[in-house]
Design goal:
The chain starts with a helix and ends with a helix. The protein is globular. By secondary structure, it is α+β, with helices and mostly antiparallel strands. The strands form three sheets. A four-stranded antiparallel beta sheet has the order 3-1-2-9, with helices on both faces. It has helices spanning 3-14, 21-39, 48-59, 64-74, 109-122, 150-162, 184-193, 215-230, 245-253; strands at 86-93, 99-106, 126-127, 137-146, 167-171, 174-179, 200-207, 211-212, 234-239, 241-242. The chain is 45% helix and 22% strand.
């Protein structure tokens, strides 16, 4: 598994940056709200994006009552149902020249832009213009399975390909599956049908090419990514950085 894929796995294990629980729930609630509005439905059986958002919230131990209230508000049945949320992508560069793409949900575009610019500068990177790095990312479904057995992971990878996955990666007994966004549920169901417990399943922005960083730039970039994901309005940060194994080991140990 490349240093980029390994970083993605570690980020899933750590949760959404190590933010305050209340801030994390705010991020998750906004994700649920946008999913409801994008799919014009508060029914997860009819709205796949909402189903993914709910699964993510549950995995982060968000109470079921909170999830239900958020969905109710999003469909306009609560007092805050009309909250003005705007979904924006911000693009920039990290130390060493890696590309960084931020998925942001905000109620105040100007405030958020200022916070993101300041954080980039403080972390040794810089905020770029729209379109400067987005061309290097493509939207994919990503499924991660912690198998623990190389041969079994290979077998499941072949099963995923048969279920119309685009690509699979196996290393250290773990499996990472890439799909077209509209095939994510189909491939996930095929794996679950084989008795597999899926560690994570999400629509993600996957880099077409990666850039290898030296140890110093890698450490700086990891710190910058954490600072960016700590911002209340940043839902998720994506990068094409390929991190050295030894730096990721230190990062994981500090989690």
């Amino acid at each position: 598994m490349s240093g980029h894929s390994k970083w993605s796995t570690i980020k899933h294990q750590k949760g959404v940056a190590d933010v305050r629980r209340g801030a994390l729930f705010t991020k998750l609630s906004r994700g649920i709200t946008l999913a409801v509005r994008a799919g014009n439905s508060g029914d997860p059986d009819m709205n796949f994006r909402l189903r993914l958002a709910i699964d993510k919230a549950k995995a982060s131990n968000m109470p079921s009552d909170n999830i239900a209230r958020t969905i109710k508000k999003a469909v306009g049945e609560g007092a805050d149902g009309a909250e003005k949320l705007e979904e924006i992508m911000y693009e920039g560069y990290g130390p060493g020249g890696s590309a960084i793409l931020l998925q942001v949900v905000t109620t105040n575009r100007n405030r958020t832009a200022g916070e993101i610019r300041s954080t980039f500068n403080r972390g040794g990177g810089n905020l770029g213009e729209s379109g400067c790095v987005a061309w290097n990312f493509e939207t994919k479904g990503v499924i991660r399975v912690e198998v623990g057995d190389e041969a079994k992971a290979e077998e499941l990878g072949l099963m995923a390909i048969d279920a119309e996955a685009d690509d699979v990666k196996v290393e250290d007994g773990d499996l990472e599956v890439y799909t077209a966004p509209d095939k994510l549920a189909q491939v996930g169901k095929a794996l679950e049908g084989a008795g597999v417990t899926i560690a994570s399943s999400e629509i993600s922005l996957v880099p077409k090419t990666t850039i290898a960083l030296d140890a110093h730039a890698a450490q700086q970039t990891l710190k910058l990514l954490d600072l960016l994901e700590d911002l209340d309005d940043v839902q998720k940060a994506y990068t094409n950085a390929d991190f050295p194994p030894e730096v990721l080991e230190q990062y994981q140990a500090a989690a």
